[in-house]
Amino acid sequence: MELTLVTSAFCGACSRTRSVVTDAARFLPDATITEIDVAHEPDAAEALDIRFTPTIIIRDASGTEVFRAEGVPTVPQMLTAAVKALPS
Q1: Which of 66, 64, 82, 57 is nearest to 7 (CA)?
Q2: Is the pTM of this model over 0.85?
Q3: 58, 30 contact by CB (below 8 A)
Q4: DSSP conformation letters of the chain
């Protein structure tokens, strides 16, 4: 499972979302977490069709996107979404 957090330096909600992702990751030891800053990696953000920051994308082991959300989630919301990326 891969959790991608898309942020920007001027986004106050991004630091709160980073904290939520870190907390949720404690329950997802096999998850890979990647952070993309739109200011430093605009091409990557464009390729992901990012419209707002923060955005969280969860992919399963095959790389298929199973969840995408904009804004600050809660840890329970993150964990509920992560279940979609677990093998059947």
Answers
A1: 57
A2: yes
A3: no
A4: -EEEEEE-TT-HHHHHHHHHHHHHHTT-TT-EEEEEETTT-HHHHHHTT--SSSEEEEE-TTS-EEEEEES---HHHHHHHHHTTS--
Sequential pLDDT tens for the chain (88 residues): 999 999 998 899 999 999 999 999 999 989 999 999 999 999 999 999 999 999 999 999 999 999 999 999 999 999 999 999 988 7
Which residues share a beta bridge with 5? 35, 56
User: Residue 20 to residues 26, 69, 73, 76: CA-CA distances in angstroms?
Assistant: 10, 13, 7, 9
